[in-house]
Amino acid sequence: VGRTSTDTYIANTRLFDGNRMRSRMGVLIEGEALTWLGPHVRAPVTARKAGRQIDGSSGTVTPGLIDCHVHLCFDGGADFLAEAKESEPLAALKCVRNGRRHLAAGVTSVRDLGGLGAVVCEVGRAVEAGIVEGPTIVASGQALTISGGHGWNSFARQADGAEGFRLAVREQIRSGARSIKVISTGGVLTPGVPVDFRALTQNELAAAVDEAHAWGYPIGAHAIGRAGIANCVSCGVDSIEHGFQIDRKIAQEMKKNGVFLVPTISAIESILDHVDEVPSYVAEKARQVADDARESFQTAVRTGVPIACGTDAGTLHNPHGSGPLELVRMVRLGLSPIRALQAATSRAADLLRLPGAGILAEGSRADVVLWNGDPSEDIASVMEPRMILLGGRPPALARQAGQAPRQHPPQG
Ligand SMILES: [Zn+2]
Fold first, then answer.
1. pTM of the entire structure?
2. What distance in angstroms lies between residue 312's CA and the mean position of ligand 1's atoms?
């Protein structure tokens, strides 16, 4: 009773539940929720009645992936600064389309770390209200930077002084932000601000952290240079974004305090892969940090710093939907495939404070992906989603997003 053809049973499959891998499992999805999982041989009678029967024997089921660092207002073309001058209505349309690109890649939740005005907050609300289809969006509103700091001429709101930052945090939250982003060092995409420039003072950082945490929201810090990273870790931010100059001492501090690294390897590699097509100051800055970035990531991995997957999609030549590629890149640099999968599921949900996301358990929302192959053996399997379910249903518009998932027709 109450069973409809939209219910799905994935039979006899490998299952990664957000923490560990098990084989010969079954997953039953009824309506929007995952209602049963366990050994396939013990599947309840209701599983056989589900309208959609999927043979998962050659594949692996995981939670929908989470990308903790995107910029939905930006397409990832060569001219970031020009894109930042476009209108907010156009940016909103791009957000919707870019959200679909994530979905098509199997990414069902994203955290946006800086857009135009309140655009991403509003698009996130539209997704929640069912007005448009899209991944769950944890928006930060505008990124917060000091006067003249990285991003001031593109995606960031300027603030100065502890009270200035406190006000800026409150404004983002009033607009609908559910996370906060501060830009605590220079960056690659703003000319004239060196990447290792230490931007926010301790007082400014402490005020921003205090205010975000008072509301119960996580705060991520764009931090590239060593001094800026150390500042952020001692002031209690939840994540270091990029973190290209982490040494052993900082890594141990991060591990001790549970501060995440979101390494955004794709941000640097995308630039280096298109070095002739980006402004020369960008190419130069990217080359300058590339070796540091690799070493820093490896130090963090060895030390046991919590890692969450983030691509920085929307920056130069870094397209939306590249979350799976970031996993491949992290594994190439030494992260184990299981830790990489955790970084894009359970760990990411911890960082974003998204209870119920990033794990598969009875009662959790059915954001589920079936991949061909076994990503714990070959992480590149996550480049090929075979079936994507968003709240228990295949996203209707994923095929129009330009990166069509290879979905097999329902069987049985
Ligand atoms: Zn970014």
1. 0.94
2. 5
Question: What is the C-alpha radius of gyration for the chain, rounded to an integer number of angstroms?
Answer: 21
- Provide the 3-class DSSP secondary structure of residue 298: helix
Q: What is the pLDDT of residues 346-399, one digit of tens each?
A: 999 999 999 889 999 999 999 999 999 999 999 999 998 999 999 999 998 544
Dist. CA 41 → ligand 1 center (Å): 45
**123-172 pLDDT per residue, tens:** 999 999 999 999 999 999 999 999 999 888 888 999 999 999 999 999 99
Question: What sign for the dihedral angle of Cα 126, 130, 132, 138?
Answer: positive
What gap in Å lies between CA 204 and CA 188, rounded to an integer?
22
pLDDT digits (tens, 9 = 90+) for 46-84: 999 999 999 999 999 999 999 999 999 999 887 888 899
CA distances from 251 to 6, 81, 84, 200, 246 (A): 47, 33, 34, 21, 6
DSSP state for residue 172 in the 8-state scheme: H
Task: Calculate how far, in angstroms, residue 282's C-alpha sits from the geometric centre of ligand 1.
Answer: 14
Q: Are 405 and 105 in contact (CB under 8 A)?
A: yes
CB 195 within 8 A of CB 225: yes
> b/e string for 256-285 if b means 16 or more Cβ within 10 A?
eeebbbbbbbbbbbbbeebeeebeeebbeb
With cut-offs at 50, 70 and 90, classify the pLDDT of residue 401: very low
Q: What distance in angstroms lies between residue 310's CA and the mean position of ligand 1's atoms?
A: 9
Query: Ligand 1 centroid vs 36 CA: distance in angstroms?
Result: 38
Q: Tokens representing 106?
A: 């199997």
How many whole angstroms from 313 Cα to the centroid of ligand 1? Answer: 7
User: Could you tell me the distance, in angstroms and rounded to a whole number, from the CA of residue 70 to the centre of ligand 1?
Assistant: 6
Phi, psi of 87 (to 5 degrees): -75, 160
- Tell how far the Cα of 113 is from the centroid of ligand 1, in angstroms: 6
Residues with CB in 5 Å of ion ligand 1: 312
Distance of CA 338 from the midpoint of ligand 1 (Å): 25
CA 53 to ligand 1 center in whole angstroms: 40
How far, in Å, is the centroid of ligand 1 from the Cα of 244? 13
